[in-house]
Amino acid sequence: MNIVVLIIMAVTCIFSYMGLNNTSLFEKYKFNVGAIANRKEYIRLISSAFLHADFMHLFFNMLSLYFFQGVVIHFFGEIGFLIVYFGSMILGNLFSLQIYKNNPGILLLVPLVLCQELFLRLLQWHRMKSVLTSFQDGCLEHYTLDIQYT
Fold first, then answer.
1. Max alpha carbon distance in the chain (Å)?
2. DSSP structure string for 64-118
3. Local structure of 1: helix, strand or coil
């Protein structure tokens, strides 16, 4: 496992553990539309991603990160992984903020699922591009060999 991912997982687990055991810390850093929009507490756009509602939520998020980190780092590299990770975090929360400002009853999960779907579509496109390039290279090589031997 990559050291960058281990650090992110460790920070997330420690911060979530602290938040789960300290209600005032959790309330201070959780995603809250009023605090972000009215009091300009923009740190919540990042800090909320490191807080989890309970240990099961934390476990499954860390398990998902563990399973997907290798593929993302393979395709995008460490810096690309960090850009995708923090970019998704910030853009997803900004998207949620815009939705919640007008419709506070909408479930937070909706924008996060949309961001995840977009990311997975980009990953599939990148993977297909690699497969097609390999296929084209193989066909070109085969065609070149046929010409040489005929």
1. 78
2. HHHHHHHHHHHHHHHHHHHHHHHHHHHHHHHHHHHHHHH-TTS-THHHHHHHHHH
3. coil
Radius of gyration, alpha carbons of the chain: 21
Write out the two tokens for 92. Answer: 């997803």
pLDDT tens-digit profile of 78-133? 998 898 889 888 888 888 888 777 765 555 555 666 666 666 676 666 665 554 45
Q: 23: which 2 tokens?
A: 């209600």
Cα 97 to Cα 15: distance, rounded to the nearest angstrom: 22
**Residue type for 47, please?**
S
Residue 128: CB partners within 8 Å, gap ≥ 6?
none
Distance (Å, rounded) from C-alpha 127 to C-alpha 120? Answer: 10
Question: Does the pTM exceed 0.70?
Answer: no
Mean pLDDT of 121-147: 51
Q: What angle do CA 124, 137, 127 make, to 5 degrees?
A: 10
The answer, yes or no, to whether residue 73 has pLDDT greater than 60, is: yes
Helix axis angle, 109-149 relative to 55-102, nearest 10°? 100
